[in-house]
Amino acid sequence: MLTTPSPADGSANVDKARWRKIATDGLWKQNPGVVQLLGLCPVLAISSTVINGVSLGLATALVTALSGATVAALRHFIPNEIRNPVFIMIIAALVTCVDMATNAYLHGLYGVLGIFIPLITTNCIVLARAEAFASKNPVCESALDGLAMGLGLTLVLAVLGALRELIGRGTLFSGAELVFGDAGRALVLHIVPAEANYQFLIALLPPGAFLGLGFLIAAKNAFDAKSGHRALLRLAQPPAHPKPEAAR
C-alpha cells in the first residue's frame, strides 16, 4: 500500500535541512575567519598557539550563541531605532560574565588572553550575527547560528595556531597547563626536541599570522573550486541506463 507523507513529516524534513544549512554555513560556507574575514584582530593576535586560539574561539562561540538566543527572544520588544545599542549591551553583559569566569577559574589563561576577552564585545562576528540573523529568526535557530559561527572561527584559530606553533616553536599544545593545570604539561608535544632551542620567529609574529591565514584562505578556495568542478562533471555525465535482464 502506498502512503503519502504527512505535513508533519514534510515540515520536519524542512527543519532538518534548514538546521543543516545553518551549521554548514557557519562552519564552512560562510566561515567568519576565512570567508567573511571578520574578527581578524583576535585571529591574528592570539593564534600563536593552539591553546590560545581554541580558548578564545570557544569563548567567542559561547558569547555568540548566548547573544543570538537572547536577541532572538527579545527581538519583538526591542525598538528598531535603538536595536544596535541594545544588542551591544546584551553582548557586553555576556562578555563580562565570561571574562569574570575566566579570571576566576582559569587565571593563568586569562593573563595570556588579556584584553582580547573584553574585546569580544566589539567583535564584528557577534554583532553581525545578532543584527543579520538573530533579530529575524527564532531562538533555537539563532543559538545554532551563533554557535556554528563561533565554532567556525574556533576551527580557523585552531588550525592557524597549530601551523604557527609547529613552525615557530616545534611544539603542539604548548600552554596546556593554563587550562588543565599541571597535568596539562603531559599534553605538550615536542616535535622538535626541547634541548634544540628551536625558534622560527617570523611564524610567531604578526607577519606569520597574515601569511598563515592567507594560506588557509587559498586552501579553502582551492578545495571549493575542486569540489565544484567535480559536481559539474557529475551533472554532465549522461544517466546510466539499466542493463536488460538476461533471457531465461
From TrEMBL:
<keyword id="KW-0997">Cell inner membrane</keyword>
<keyword id="KW-0813">Transport</keyword>
<keyword id="KW-0472">Membrane</keyword>
<dbReference type="InterPro" id="IPR003667">
    <property type="entry name" value="NqrDE/RnfAE"/>
</dbReference>
<comment type="subunit">
    <text>The complex is composed of six subunits: RnfA, RnfB, RnfC, RnfD, RnfE and RnfG.</text>
</comment>
<dbReference type="InterPro" id="IPR010968">
    <property type="entry name" value="RnfE"/>
</dbReference>
<dbReference type="Pfam" id="PF02508">
    <property type="entry name" value="Rnf-Nqr"/>
</dbReference>
<keyword id="KW-1003">Cell membrane</keyword>
<protein>
    <recommendedName>
        <fullName>Ion-translocating oxidoreductase complex subunit E</fullName>
        <ecNumber>7.-.-.-</ecNumber>
    </recommendedName>
</protein>
<keyword id="KW-0249">Electron transport</keyword>
<comment type="similarity">
    <text>Belongs to the NqrDE/RnfAE family.</text>
</comment>
<keyword id="KW-0812">Transmembrane</keyword>
<keyword id="KW-1278">Translocase</keyword>
<comment type="function">
    <text>Part of a membrane-bound complex that couples electron transfer with translocation of ions across the membrane.</text>
</comment>
<feature type="transmembrane region" description="Helical">
    <location>
        <begin position="86"/>
        <end position="106"/>
    </location>
</feature>
<feature type="transmembrane region" description="Helical">
    <location>
        <begin position="142"/>
        <end position="163"/>
    </location>
</feature>
<feature type="transmembrane region" description="Helical">
    <location>
        <begin position="198"/>
        <end position="219"/>
    </location>
</feature>
<feature type="transmembrane region" description="Helical">
    <location>
        <begin position="112"/>
        <end position="130"/>
    </location>
</feature>
<keyword id="KW-1133">Transmembrane helix</keyword>
<feature type="transmembrane region" description="Helical">
    <location>
        <begin position="54"/>
        <end position="74"/>
    </location>
</feature>
